[in-house]
Amino acid sequence: MALLYRILTAVAAFVLVPYYALRGWRRREPRQTLRDRFGRLSPEIIARAAAASPEDRPIWIHAVSVGEVLAAKPLLDGLARSFPSRPVFVSTTTETGQKLARERLADAAGIFYFPLDWGVPVGRALDALQPSLIVIMETEIWPNFLRIARARGVPVVFANARISEKSMGRFERWKFLIGLFFEEVLQWPSLFLAQSQEDAARLAAMGAPEGRIKVTGNLKYDVEPPAASAFTRWLAGQIQSQERWPVLVAGSVVAEEESQVLAAWDYVQRQWRHSLLILAPRKPGRFDAAVEICREGGWNVIRRSEIDLQAPFDEHADILVLDSIGELTATYALGDAVFVGGSLVRSGGHNILEPAWYGKPPVFGFSMENFEEMASRFLSARAGIQVSNGPMLGRVWVQLIEDAEARNRMGESARKLSEQNRGATARTLEKIGALLGSRMEPA
User: 60 near 72, Cβ under 8 Å?
Assistant: First the structure.
């Protein structure tokens, strides 16, 4: 099966090479983006990696997209403190992840796109960095990458590893076909640092050696909330001067979820005409569509990209669409009630800690497979509310707005819960330090 995968990915290269080239041209991506994906890293990154001594070869962290980049922040900071002489490089898969990494991960020695999972690009990237260790955030499994790293004697650690119930169910359905292949692939990493006991059990059921699985907790609890930006400070002042109330923040909203959020918003605005909805689509590809959907509903819409911070906010605007990257988290602080999206459709949910950092009780939908353990904790502690559809979201928003005492009590519980579960970074660094102190022989 491993040989078949290598053959299939090699064949796919003939299709995907022109695809990535054409996509990059259409999006006007920098030429280096395509070069990264084929393992040809920039001269600056190659020079920084080459400057490391043989005893302090680089560490490579891979964070797929926005959520993994945010989780990688405390780990990167901890690695910089614990191993100051080792350069740490970060790769991402998505464009949004790349933008956020460049903004938030200032301690990284270099940031680039992850190579495509073919032998030649992977080999080139490993040749360029010569890493002493590779850390993959969560559980993105690339068989060729893992096989080649193992063959070269480079230990690979899955940090903040998780296997959702949905992913496990999909694996069980196809186990008859891919079970032996996965069991072989999961022998190649050196360590799996799982978020929870349930994640650890699922990894073991998929074939990961039990002796290499450790439960270290969820790194996302250790993330520090970003400071207020010039935009959020400006917006807070405008909200206060115009007496806009209440303010609703719907973050990380995905395709086909906008209409449900707007149904909830309609329920709120019937009672408070001077209220404001801040709607943040999860992906840049939905920015234009979200604006159009809002306008089709008859709302007065303004885009973040159209705002002049030297001018007043449009008093007639009903909805502010946050068509930017990296500004959502701090914006939650402005909300009187919030919603964390990707959860009212089958999308798996998004990080409910972000509003909790500011004492805002997260409201989220039924689909929280990617954060099931976290969601369960918040519900058990009465620190969050789960809804099943748009009208129910509207009713919950109204209840929170009308009952300030309950809202503040839940918000304080949410904030405390986010603080009480810290410590995963220290446990992860301890395991990584022990691995760096040992030597791994090539397979």
Answer: no
Does 79 lie in the same domain as 192? yes
User: Do 433 and 349 share a structural domain?
Assistant: no
* Residue count (the chain): 443
Tell me whether residue 42 is in a domain. Answer: no
DSSP string, 87-126: -EEEEESSHHHHHHHHHH-TT-SEEEEPPPSSHHHHHHHH
Q: Give which of 154, 189, 161 is closest to 438, Cα–Cα.
A: 154
Residue 265 sits in the same domain as residue 296: yes
By three-state DSSP, how is residue 135 classified?
A: strand
Residue 408: is its pLDDT beyond 70? yes
Number of domains within the chain: 2
Count CA atoms within 13 Å of residue 263 on its CB side. 13
Say if residue 369 is in the same domain as residue 262.
Answer: yes
Q: 173-224, pLDDT tens digit by residue?
A: 999 989 999 999 999 999 999 999 999 999 999 999 999 999 999 999 999 9
The predicted pLDDT at position 440 comes to 42
Lookup: tokens for 61: 């962290």
Closest CA to 319 of 291, 338, 346: 291
What 8-state DSSP symbol labels residue 246? Answer: -
Coil/strand/helix, residue 369:
helix
